[in-house]
Amino acid sequence: MEVLLLDVEADLSVREDGRTVWAEDAFPAAELAYQLGRWLRGADADRGDFTFDSLQAEPGTLRIAEAGEGRWRVGSGLAPAWWTAPVAWDVLTTEIGRLDRSVREGLAALGVGPDVLPAL
Questions:
Q1: Distances, alpha carbon 82 to alpha carbons 21, 51, 76, 79, in Å
Q2: Terminal alpha carbon distance of the chain
Q3: Could you tell me which residues come within 8 angstroms of residue 17 by beta carbon, excluding any fewer than 6 positions away?
Q4: What is the pTM of this model?
Q5: CA distance 7 to 110
Q6: Are 74 and 64 in contact (CB under 8 A)?
Q7: Which one, of 24, 37, 32, 38, lies nearest residue 8 by Cα?
Q8: 4-26 pLDDT, tens per residue?
Q9: For residues 9 and 32, what is the distance between their CA atoms, to the nearest angstrom?
């Protein structure tokens, strides 16, 4: 399964207020969706920050950190000074859900069932 996740790539970008603030071509999108699904399924009290850990990307290429008061921000270890403005948890999970649906559609087009990714 891991090879399959590593082999599914897509152009990925993070946008804020209509502008692209971070983008990477050929990003391991299925692996990211898998890790985000596991992170979201964790207990609220134990969730902590998210750091994407991949064999194909630099450690911390994509990070999600709590910014206080139930708000979260997205950043990249490749640009440590860069972070999005903090957003509410429901806004963050809506965007993660959009990514998840897009990856699932791509997997389905390859003939891969949805069970390869954890349910959100």
A1: 8, 15, 7, 6
A2: 18
A3: none
A4: 0.88
A5: 11
A6: yes
A7: 32
A8: 777 788 999 888 888 787 888 99
A9: 10
